[in-house]
Amino acid sequence: MATTKIFPIHTTLKETLAYIANPKKTDNGRLVFGFMCSENPTKAAKDFAEVTATGTGRSTVLAQHFIISFQPGEITPERAIEIGKELCTKFLNDEYQYLLTVHVDKAHVHLHCVFNNTNLGERLHFPDFKQSGQNP
User: Fold this and answer.
1) CATH classification at residue 21
2) pLDDT digits over 61-96, tens only?
3) Which of the listed residues 14, 52, 58, 67 has the most CB atoms within 10 Å of its CB?
4) Domain limits at 79?
5) Taking the model in full, what pTM does it have?
């Protein structure tokens, strides 16, 4: 059974993108996918910043980072990245840039996704259900 975590990124976007796209963890970059941004982490950070710069500026969050960890042998890396794409399509509705990677450097496959906190359309920030008092 997979375990999922999500948390906001306030200051370390470029470093986080570099970490999740590390070639040593992603089978030399084979397990990296960018949606509306470069697969290169430095360029992806710039792509995110361009969208954020035109946003509403109402949030101190730069991006959201979620991780899905699978049990050893539960899934192949290729299937994990497909699940990540499917989840992002449903959860983000093609409204947010994201960099999706699968790490294979541990005994268990795990997926990382960092998505821009500012959407591509109205340039609004991702809803923070905790602060809004709403349930997701």
Assistant:
1) 3.30.930.30
2) 999 999 999 999 999 999 999 999 999 999 999 999
3) 52
4) 3-120
5) 0.91
